[in-house]
Write a structure and sequence with these properties.
Layout lengths: L2 H27 L7 E10 L4 E10 L3
Antiparallel strand pairs: 1-2
Length: 63
């Protein structure tokens, strides 16, 4: 894979990670999350490549 491809991929994934974490933290701060666990799903799509990739998991609320 080319350096340009790798750099653009890393930049996109970093942006997804950072902005998603910020959004989740903000939502968790605004809610009573103590003792709760939340199902979470992230979806990445590239329409031109007919790609849909889902990642699921759980996030525990703050104590």
């Amino acid at each position: 894979m080319s350096d340009d491809f790798n750099m653009s991929m890393r930049k996109f994934l970093k942006q997804v990670g950072v902005t998603s974490q910020q959004a989740i933290e903000e939502a968790m701060r605004e809610a009573d999350t103590a003792g709760k666990t939340y199902a979470v799903k992230a979806v990445v799509t590239i329409e031109e490549l007919d790609l849909t990739h889902e990642v699921t998991g759980q996030i525990k609320g703050q104590e």
